[in-house]
Amino acid sequence: MKNYLIILFLLPILTLSQVKSDSLFEEYESYDNITSILITEYMFSLTDSFIVNLANDDKDLAPIKDILPKMKSMKILVYDGKNKQAPFYTDIKKSLTKNYKILTHVKPSNSNIDFLIDETNDMVNELVLLSDNAYIFLEGNLTMNDVHNMVEKFNK
Prior knowledge:
Number of domains: 1
Number of strands: 6
Strand order of the largest sheet: 1-2-6-5-4-3
Radius of gyration: 17 Å
Largest sheet: 6 strands, antiparallel
Structural class: alpha+beta
Mean pLDDT: 74
């Protein structure tokens, strides 16, 4: 009975993080200077072999090839940078309500790149890549080893 109460307590909290990600994506995808891309779990299941084959042919996709079968969804927002409103990076960073762990923060010249994760019980549930002109949200069931291997491949 105690376990059921704990689960009932945690369930709204866990779903809240997904709702925040969804609302952030929905808000920004309506902007004229934003390109939005959503890949659902169903799409990943339909195109698993297609994406893996594409990743075999495309050097830029190769680092994520091994994690694709473990993915649930991918949301991407790309800012064209032409409209000089409030900085994209700062706005998105403020909108991230979860306490993500920072894996890396790179600040070349006058730009920002953050790689953040949310993990539970040694499983990475969410990865966020945030830069001055892009927000990439990956949801899945990855191990830290999966993440490490992906980062290593990007650095090659």
